[in-house]
Amino acid sequence: MSKLIYLDNAATTKTAPEVLEAMLPYFTEQYGNPSAIYSFASHNKDVVAEQRERIANALGAKSNEIYFTAGGSESDNWALKATAEAYQNKGKHIITTKIEHHAILHTAAYLEERGFEVTYLDVDEYGKVNPADVEAAIRPDTILISVMYANNEIGTIEPIKEIGEIAHKHGILFHTDAVQAFGQVPINVDECHIDMLSASGHKLNGPKGIGFLYIRKGVKIRSFVHGGAQERKRRAGTENVPGIVGIGTATKRAIATMEERTAKEREMRDYLIKRVMEEIPYTKLNGHPTDRLPNNANFCFRFIEGESMLIRLDMAGICGSSGSACTSGSLDPSHVLLAIGLPHEIAHGSLRLTLNEEITKEDIDYVVDQLKTIVSDLRGMSPLYEDFAKKQNK
Ligand SMILES: *Cc1c(COP(=O)(O)O)cnc(C)c1O
């Protein structure tokens, strides 16, 4: 099978050729340490500053508010742990949601073990957080609200502006995990009253192992890595110059191509959803019908195990996902699908397909044709489906 159709862009993306090209000299000729005095290395200092500027511009932020990290997980850990520590004299209550990425949920659990209290907000059947619930959860000792910009499994885009306004009105810090949204939807940190924002290079056609945390000027966050004076003394360690050039170039590219690229993805995604919903019975579309990431489709096929579907799709050269990559390997259904109210047996039959701009109509036709056969084969082997079909025919 030589054909490969990659529909797992929420797990990671291909580094764009122009991004790789921009990075290469920083592995070879331009390897100097940006902290060095000689002019050979000082170019690298300028290059890092230039990437910080590019990213700041993309968010309506200032470049001294961008801190490079090793990725989305580190940014999320930093935002939660370091604000918890810095603001614990004010209070020990944090508000987040039930559908966050594990980088947030497991960090929140870690803080609970250390005496913090966390409220995990429910979401509606489409995975939306209700801003009124956020406001109702606020207590005098609330120090942080963390709500993701867009969900990585079902693609739902959250009412970030409304939540930011509430946080701002109550004088509470607001963090958003924008790892999925950054580069896919326009984001402005001032308009949304965002105090901290996490993003990651490899989710936007940049390299793995590089990300950033936006920290609004004035936020008293603790240093995350102690050592040298890099990242304004808040995150020590010699700068990952190739990675920083990678995420900076990927950001520039994502912003410049956003309109055209996401329009293409949206068109193909809508075509995929239309065909699947029309041609495969007993199927549910998960996530919000309109407020969703342009490249995300997520379905539940009744009477089917997601894992078996993935194996059959793999044999047909199609990469998809069931639940998030971090939970695959475990048999628990996705916490996100449970949070939108799906029963276990239905949540087990989920399939996430996330597109990129290279996916064509022919690709989608091939995928849907394969999917129809696979779903029908697997249902043919399912005793549950047999019972169900018998009842239908009575
Ligand atoms: C991928 C992802 C992360 C983790 O980012 P890494 O760079 O892989 O550490 C965090 N949050 C969300 C929403 C993600 O999709």
TrEMBL record:
Active site, renumbered = 326 (cysteine persulfide intermediate)
Pathways involved: Cofactor biosynthesis; iron-sulfur cluster biosynthesis
Iron among keywords: yes
- List the EC numbers from the record: 2.8.1.7
Where in this chain does the record put each Aminotransferase class V domain?
5-367
Q: Which reaction does it catalyse?
A: (sulfur carrier)-H + L-cysteine = (sulfur carrier)-SH + L-alanine
Q: Which cofactor does it need?
A: pyridoxal 5'-phosphate
Name its cellular compartments. Cytoplasm
Pfam families to which the protein is assigned, alphabetical: Aminotran_5 (PF00266)
What does this gene product do? Master enzyme that delivers sulfur to a number of partners involved in Fe-S cluster assembly, tRNA modification or cofactor biosynthesis. Catalyzes the removal of elemental sulfur atoms from cysteine to produce alanine. Functions as a sulfur delivery protein for Fe-S cluster synthesis onto IscU, an Fe-S scaffold assembly protein, as well as other S acceptor proteins.
What is this protein called in UniProt? Answer: Cysteine desulfurase IscS
The coding gene here is nifS
